């Protein structure tokens, strides 16, 4: 077996659909073709939306597709202590600060500013008002028990790392493309949520390091996040994996499949008599790939 390690990392906040199947199968094919290892990671930091029944269902769906992986899987909810230590380190270095602003307050603050810049996910960039709080005022608000997120001070973070930041991107091929990371597009991004000591970005970066991930295969919708992840890797002293962002499975309207849009779950297809072979054949035809 080679030293190559990749991972499929779904969130158990709904049932898997064809888009997830495609990503999982792409990871499985890549690891098989390179005599590597495929890991399953359960990204369940969202304690409100993540449910045990979805977690069990995704294991069943992946097994139905013919996938196998080492047990036990890494579950992010088991590592909140590690995430907290990392966040505390960033705060201690002056690279993260508490933000007391709610999403509603941020949105209200730019309601009359239609040209306000937005991050790659479409959310308005944070103005930095809490970054400018005096130490005394910040301490008073913390002592009062106000809820807060932790935001990365992007300007200070960029000043700590060598620029430009770069990484290797392969997309669905075998030819590397040298990419320049643009973490600045995210502004002072949230890296610690109000309810848990992590954000998707922080937990993902730390878990990839902890699991020795060498190649990240994930949907093209996550490609813009790579620049931010590369920055966090540099700040933490972690190696940067190779990235391979794949096309998305689209619906009849040309839109990305999503749990929130009630895209047909794999388990529903299975219950209706559809075989795993048929699912693979359909994806092979639609996406022009071979398993």
Automatic annotation (TrEMBL):
Domain Glutamyl/glutaminyl-tRNA synthetase class Ib catalytic: residue ranges: 6-265
Highest taxon, organism lineage: Bacteria
GO cellular-component term (any): cytosol
Classification via InterPro entries: aa-tRNA-synth_I_CS (IPR001412), Glu/Gln-tRNA-synth (IPR000924), Glu/Gln-tRNA-synth_Ib_cat-dom (IPR020058), GluQ/Sye (IPR049940), Rossmann-like_a/b/a_fold (IPR014729)
GO molecular function, one term: glutamate-tRNA ligase activity
PROSITE patterns listed in its UniProt record: AA_TRNA_LIGASE_I
UniProt keyword annotations, A-Z: Aminoacyl-tRNA synthetase, ATP-binding, Ligase, Metal-binding, Nucleotide-binding, Protein biosynthesis, Zinc
Annotated signal peptide: none
Biological processes annotated in GO: glutamyl-tRNA aminoacylation
Family: Belongs to the class-I aminoacyl-tRNA synthetase family.
Protein name: tRNA glutamyl-Q(34) synthetase GluQRS
């Amino acid at each position: 077996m080679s030293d190559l390690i990749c991972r499929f990392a779904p969130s158990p906040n709904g049932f898997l659909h064809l888009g997830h199947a495609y990503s999982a199968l792409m990871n499985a094919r890549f690891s098989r073709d390179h005599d590597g290892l495929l890991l399953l990671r359960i990204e369940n930091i969202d304690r409100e939306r993540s449910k045990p029944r979805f977690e069990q269902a995704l294991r069943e769906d992946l097994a139905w597709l013919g996938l196998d992986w080492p047990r036990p899987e890494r579950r992010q909810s088991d590592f909140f202590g590690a995430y907290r230590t990392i966040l505390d380190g960033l705060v201690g270095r002056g690279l993260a600060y508490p933000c007391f602003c709610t999403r509603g307050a941020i949105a209200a603050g730019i309601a009359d500013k239609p040209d306000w810049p937005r991050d790659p996910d479409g959310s308005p960039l944070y103005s930095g008002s809490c970054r400018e709080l005096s130490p005394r005022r910040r301490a008073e608000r913390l002592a009062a028990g106000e809820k807060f997120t932790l935001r990365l001070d992007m300007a200070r973070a960029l000043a700590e790392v060598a620029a430009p930041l770069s990484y290797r991107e392969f997309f669905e091929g075998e030819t590397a493309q040298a990419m320049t990371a643009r973490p600045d597009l995210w502004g002072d991004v949230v890296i610690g949520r109000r309810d848990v000591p992590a954000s998707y970005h922080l937990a993902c970066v730390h878990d990839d390091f902890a699991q020795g991930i060498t190649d990240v295969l994930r949907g093209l919708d996550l490609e813009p996040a790579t620049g931010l992840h590369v920055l966090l890797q540099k700040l933490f002293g972690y190696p940067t994996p190779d990235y391979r962002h794949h096309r998305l499975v689209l619906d009849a309207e040309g839109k990305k499949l999503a749990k929130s849009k009630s895209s047909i779950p794999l388990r529903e297809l299975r219950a209706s008599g559809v075989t795993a072979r048929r699912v693979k054949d359909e994806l092979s035809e639609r996406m022009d790939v071979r398993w």
